[in-house]
């Protein structure tokens, strides 16, 4: 937004990208629909950058906003941009379960809740008793039972898989049976409600507003939901897709950083892509950085510079030391 304020970037909001314009095998612009007037508009450019998010909404319900709907990536794919690792989807274990037919998305609850909340289901199948009426001996704290070393803090994929498994076995709770309890009773007793509310007060409030149930009085109900996609449009180390001139950043690409998503930050990838990687192939990198790189590593820099002058991949002058052959598979469009 700083660049917008400085007059260097113009935002055209309320536009949906309909197509990538390809001229002589290179991306040279986009066609968008103006969502206010309904008219099609065209924008030409030397290169195109897609930053249009992941494909979580290819699944029926996800934690993504509805406008993050993978339409742009799909249209680019149809124009020749390869897609990679599409099966690599993260399922988040701590979402508020589906609660109606007219729902467009699922609400994510912070995983920090698993620090103090205990996950359980009734041992018996089809047990519709109130949670307070189910004695300890008839509860299955399945994560603590199966993974005593980690308990409720198992990684996201393990927590998600196990929740689905117990629900598939008929031990799920709530109206749909597609939910497990996340219970704070013990933590509230141990630490007192003041301390627990200090840590999670806003989350408890949010949960209560959505479900009309107070987590201080009865356990939360949670269920896994599609949350983040690590696959996406294939890119090389300069973030260029297999369609020349089309660059892809953030969750929309198949990303190295996102592959580590279970332990790292997706937002970090967006920042790294935008600040450090994307400017390089476009030759926007400042002379100061070039000087630093030259001082640190004169030879590879010169080699890289010669290579980039010859090639069509822009004018990257900083040697990264990375192999130009990307990790991960490439699917042809
Ligand atoms: C509920 C939730 C919580 C999260 N929490 C965390 C967290 O704590 N830490 C973390 O690291 N990550 C978190 N993530 C993941 C992280 O927010 C995303 O990975 C990141 O925001 C992706 O950024 P992006 O810019 O690549 O895409 P997005 O932020 O998804 O932006 C894509 C944009 O492109 C627009 N768009 C899509 N298609 C078109 C089209 N055809 N034409 C025009 N525009 C289009 C969309 O409307 C949207 O504005 C969370 C995600 C969600 C959904």
UniProtKB/TrEMBL annotation:
Gene3D superfamilies: FAD/NAD(P)-binding domain, Succinate dehydrogenase/fumarate reductase flavoprotein, catalytic domain. Keywords: Flavoprotein, Oxidoreductase. The keyword Flavoprotein applies. Residues 301-312 have a biased composition (Basic residues). Pfam families: FAD_binding_2. Residues 3-267 form the FAD-dependent oxidoreductase 2 FAD-binding domain. It comes from the Bacteria. Its EC number is 1.3.5.1, 1.3.5.4. The keyword Flavoprotein applies. GO terms for cellular component: plasma membrane. It is an enzyme of class 1 (oxidoreductase). InterPro entries: FAD-dep_OxRdtase_2_FAD-bd, FAD/NAD-bd_sf, SdhA/FrdA/AprA, Succ_DH/fumarate_Rdtase_cat_sf. GO terms for molecular function: electron transfer activity; flavin adenine dinucleotide binding; succinate dehydrogenase (quinone) activity. Its cofactor is FAD. Signal peptide: none annotated. The active site is at residue 156. Residues 301-333 are annotated as: Disordered. GO terms for biological process: anaerobic respiration. This is Succinate dehydrogenase or fumarate reductase, flavoprotein subunit.
């Amino acid at each position: 937004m700083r660049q917008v304020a400085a007059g260097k970037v113009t935002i055209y909001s309320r536009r949906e990208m309909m197509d990538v314009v390809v001229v002589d095998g290179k991306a040279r612009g986009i066609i968008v629909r103006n969502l206010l007037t309904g008219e099609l508009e065209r924008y030409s450019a030397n290169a195109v950058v897609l930053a249009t998010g992941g494909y979580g909404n290819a699944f029926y319900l996800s934690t993504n906003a509805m406008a993050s709907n993978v339409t742009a990536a799909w249209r680019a794919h149809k124009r020749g941009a390869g897609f990679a690792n599409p099966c690599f989807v993260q399922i988040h274990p701590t979402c508020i379960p589906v609660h109606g037919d007219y729902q467009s998305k699922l609400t994510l609850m912070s995983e920090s809740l698993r620090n103090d909340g205990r996950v359980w289901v009734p041992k018996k199948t089809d047990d519709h008793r109130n949670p307070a009426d189910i004695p300890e001996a008839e509860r299955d704290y399945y994560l603590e039972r199966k993974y005593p070393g980690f308990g409720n803090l198992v990684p996201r994929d393990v927590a998600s898989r196990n929740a689905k498994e117990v629900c598939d076995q008929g031990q799920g709770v709530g109206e749909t049976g597609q939910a497990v309890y996340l219970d704070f009773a013990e933590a509230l007793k141990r630490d007192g409600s003041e301390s627990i509310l200090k840590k999670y007060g806003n989350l408890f409030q949010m949960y209560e507003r959505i479900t009309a149930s107070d987590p201080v009085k009865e356990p939360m109900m949670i269920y896994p939901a599609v949350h983040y996609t690590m696959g996406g449009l294939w890119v090389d180390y300069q973030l260029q897709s297999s369609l020349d001139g089309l660059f892809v950043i953030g969750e929309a690409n198949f990303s190295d950083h996102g592959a580590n998503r279970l332990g790292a930050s997706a937002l970090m990838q967006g920042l790294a892509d935008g600040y450090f990687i994307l400017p390089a192939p476009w030759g926007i990198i400042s002379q100061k950085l070039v000087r630093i790189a030259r001082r640190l590593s004169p030879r590879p820099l010169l080699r890289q510079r010669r290579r980039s002058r010859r090639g069509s991949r822009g004018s990257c002058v900083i040697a990264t030391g990375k192999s130009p052959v990307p990790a991960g598979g490439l699917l042809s469009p």
